[in-house]
Design goal:
With about 400 residues, this protein is α+β, with helices and mostly antiparallel strands. The protein has a domain at about 5-120 and about 245-385: 3-Layer(aba) Sandwich (Peroxisomal Thiolase, Chain A, domain 1), CATH 3.40.47.10. The chain has eleven helices and twelve strands. The strands form two sheets. Strands 1, 2, 3, 4, 5, 8, 9, 10, 11 and 12 form a ten-stranded mixed β-sheet that branches. A two-stranded antiparallel sheet has the order 6-7. α2 (about 65-75) links the parallel β3 (about 50-55) and β4. α1 packs across α2 and α3 packs across α11 (about 355-370).
Length: about 400
Amino acid sequence: MTGAYLFAAARTPFGRFGGALADARPDDLAAAVMSGLLSKTPTLDPSEIGDIVWGNANGAGEENRNVGRMAALLAGLPTSVPATTVNRLCGSSLDAAMIASRTVESGDADIVLVGGVESMTRAPWVMPKPSRAFPAGDTAAVSTTLGWRLVNPKMPAEWTVSLGECNEQLADKFAISRKRQDEFAVRSHILADTAWKAGWYDDLVVAVPGVDLSQDEGIRPDATPEKLAGLKPSFRQAGTITAGNASPLNDGASALLVGSGDASDRIGSAPLARIAGRGAYALDPQNFGFAPVEAANLALTRAGISWDEVGAVELNEAFAVQSLACIDAWKIDPAIVNTWGGAIAIGHPLGASGARILGTLTHRLVRDRQRWGVAAICIGVGQALAVVLENVSSGSEN
């Protein structure tokens, strides 16, 4: 079997809910980032792309079910390039990258375009279809922006609590204080602001045509623990989770180019990183925030390395509390985690986040000349995914 490599990464700036990207349809966001990614590999003939695997957590609105195919057509790719859309909620685009890596390793395709998109602003309201015509009662529209909807009454109540309540339970279990959560959130904003000012995102972020947004819209460089301490808890009256120490609702898209080593000549560049290990893990739905622990451990085992060898970690910051719980469980140095900022500051457009953290990890490994990195993401309803990357660029350490 051949290896699977990352050749290029791109993402849009992430917009706030109702913010600068509010008027951009999700299929247009996806098309923009596909075009932006391919602009980084100008010698690649798009007809050489064997497949597109795209992540999206909604699909109920303007995504038109298979947003990967819709975006490819809108981006002007040849109609001969096939595309599919996968949904593993927050992990959708990381799942897409994992699927693409298996496709390349098995020889089914040499070059696969992957990524994901979410417009949480434009997520539609839905309502159940009546089982018979002209029902006499009322019905309610349900938002598809985030979380459970139209829940099956057979589901145990403890599984279907809100995402915030799940993480309040995690805070209780591991005695993670509000103070620690707020400090972690402030760190996310400061590091993201520093990374943007240092130009580290310049090679990663591509513009959305017709939109005046040059960087992530939710970063607050003036955030302080004192300011965050003044926010009211969002899920419990005496809880620890607030709008300041959890990821916000966002719009955005991200993309990656995955290929075999033999595809370098057609792509026109050498690979940046090898996908060395993959892990998927699941547990009780209410414990989803802790699931990355074992997903990453599995990925490391399959890569044949240990945490002691890892120089960079990208952990999606769904909530500060679950991020801290995972870092504590891994017993790693927090200084190697999300050094360019995380989702609390940058944002978490569900279907786009997995490819964002994998692309950022790739660039971090190259810039910092680290050999091994881990990308991990928690997923609602009790799941998580993780990928181990090996830096294969000329500047990597051996």
